[in-house]
Protein 1
Amino acid sequence: MTTSTTTQSTTTNKPARPLTRIVPAASTIEGGGFEVYRPFPGSVIDWLDPFLLLDEMAPNHQKPGEAIGAPPHPHRGFETVTYVLQGEVEHRDSAGNHGVIGPGDVQWMTAGDGIIHSEMPSTRLQTDGGVLHGLQLWVNLPASLRRTTPKYQGLPADQIASVDGDGWKAEVVAGSMFGVRGPAATHTPVGYARVTVQPGSTLRIQTPDRQTALVYAFDGVGVVGDESQRLEAHHLAVFDRTGGDIALAVPADEPTALDCIVLTGEPINEPMARYGPFVMNTTGELEEAINDFNAGRMGSIPATGTT
């Protein structure tokens, strides 16, 4: 793990990014029947270019022999990113990739030209039971890369860049934040970091100008922006694309730390057509994706994966 220690938060002379809105996540059911908190897409926001979807898989207390996940399903035209907070997730796909990720681990899958994958509780979790809690992000691809060769990146926690500050800690998965670079290889400029802020602490996070910038809280309470707007768990803060830093703090009287993810991304600014697990640029391309899946041209998951 790349580790850096700093006694101060990252600061600049730029004003904080204006806060656009705070969006509560809606509860819905996904996969084999597990609950997720979803701030988008939904009735308030459809997508936030280049981000297509953000789900928090609600802490699911799985009983032995009754664990549920996401059975085999297809994707084309974008990337999926899974971050495990508790428990273990086992990935298998039609390209022969196989991996098990646990707390603090990440898997970054480029669906590209088309892939079928499953994300299920690990064999151990299915046998013994336990808690499964995590996050999934969908990242769009430009037209020139929608049909790229599928790829799988398994990123263990000990390879994720970590930064310790004065009352806060950051784990950088992708992009450059807090003076370090995350290990994920991305097709477009994307930043992804888990940030934990203790009560009584503040920081300002440098973010690239003109990029989408988001903070999603999954535990605790904090305040964001120079407006000091309250940000509760299962809520998403959306910032204006102009300006610089993200201002983030936790009042001293809060009983617990704020645990959140910070996302930045360069907008792709292209037409988009989406239907379920397929994201393309035109309806004709969508129809082709559906036909390719129905005809079996996206393959199938091998009986045993390769590590």
Note: Residues 6-11 have pLDDT under 50 and may be disordered.
Protein 2
Amino acid sequence: MHPLDTLIWTALSTRQAPLAEGGPLARRFRADIGPFAAAADHSAEALSALGALMSSGDDISLLEPAPPQPPVGVELEMSALGLQMTCGAFGADGRAFAIEELGGNDAEDMLALATLTRPGPFRINTHTLGRFVGIRDGAWLVAMAGERLRIDGFIEISGVCTHPDYRGRGYGAALLRAVGARILADGATPFLHTYADNEGAITLYRSLGFETRCEVIHAVWRKR
């Protein structure tokens, strides 16, 4: 089995274990970081343990080629087909933008931009998952991208978004290149996820050198 097939569990039990809650059967990121969670396997015991990590009304996100059915007391709220894409090299680009590092002092600006543009699950401390960069117009953060899930040899690019008033300027591609080039320099392979019907994003990713590795399902569970 490819390590990216069990991505969330592997991340939560290895390199991102300090950010996890749970135990040997099931784990999830802290709620302030994000909703992603996974069971160690699809046994009834592991799925029950995963459900036990949820409070009433809580939701979690699974990202797997074939997610399991939720345990008793938990319902499937959403299921959507996605693509997992990897990149081995980026082509040259002559455009240059003023890209800056983002961190804790930028957390509220990052959350506001993500809330507006919805690049995927993003919470007040999502930025602690990895290194983020952005482009500002004065004090206004108008585009960003960063890292999310990481396992040995692979780091995910995520949180890629641009304010609607600033789209079409090449900011997204520039930030993807910046984040991806740093991952490659670290000796890891950059990868990302997108919904299978997001044709605009898929076209952009392919133009940068990303290729589809497999289909995945983004499943959202909610506890009754």
Note: The mean pLDDT is 96.
Protein 3
Amino acid sequence: MKKASRPGGPASSAIVRRVVWEYILITIGVAIMSLGMVWFLDPYRISAGGVSGIAIVLRRLIGIPLGITMLILNVPLFFIGIKALGRRFGIRTFYGFSMFSVMVDLIERVLYGMVLNRPSYLLSDPSSVDVLKDLDPLLASIFGGLLLGLGLGLVFRAQGSTGGSDIIAQIAVRYRISTAGQAFMAFDFVVICSSALFFGNVSYALIGFLALFVSSKTVDVVVEGIGNTKGLYIVSDRWKVISDRIMKEIDRGATILHGQGAYTGKDKEVIFCVVTRRNIYRVRQIVAEEDQRAFMVISDLHEVYGMGFKPQKEEETPL
């Protein structure tokens, strides 16, 4: 009879270490995002979409600190997400957006005053900081978007979320209103265009779209390397458990292909699935946890059509 693993054994310790590391990674990620907002985006009124973009606009209109505004906007979204998506929505989302809100105000009000010995409110004015006063807004949008994407990529790798548009996108997918990408695009488009309306200059929208583009591409690179959607082939004797976990934990379908080992002549089951940028790291974790001897191939896919990806449509005849 197989002995049951003891609570607190090696497997439990490994899980605890992994979870602790992932929360550390989320904290590092939101700290980097906060630096991007505080150093580059907010001083130049650059909204890169999402709840953070709304916070930058509202700060200029009513003077509420960035972190407090993001927290106020995220809390109702979080409870709506819990109701619509269930408990699997998770505590990591709450931790992610709460820590992001705290970090933004902490960096602005505490570190700014301690390190530069200046009143924190001056940070919203680039001319008050010698290293920022001559910075071109175009460069500010690029480097702000870079830090925003780098931090968000680390959060995604730790299976976390900073709330905001991420919550809206998941709800849109849950109720089949749109794909996650379409929901992100629509929400960010409205936020960035609104910033131009409130600030009275279309250049704010153009620079905001540039920051959004840079951050999105940076997230792609951090989470999955160079490439877009990934196709995975997994050969394992524990194919049933792995495929079930992929479908349950990641909410992605999988196809079982029947193969045969050329050398051994034994029948083999091969899992084939297609995942997006946020899921690839988690699939690798699942496979490693279930079968460290598994054979896995990950390839870049340029176009994917069907449920959860691009809709099937009739192609026009080229001229």
Note: The chain has two domains: 10-224, 229-301.
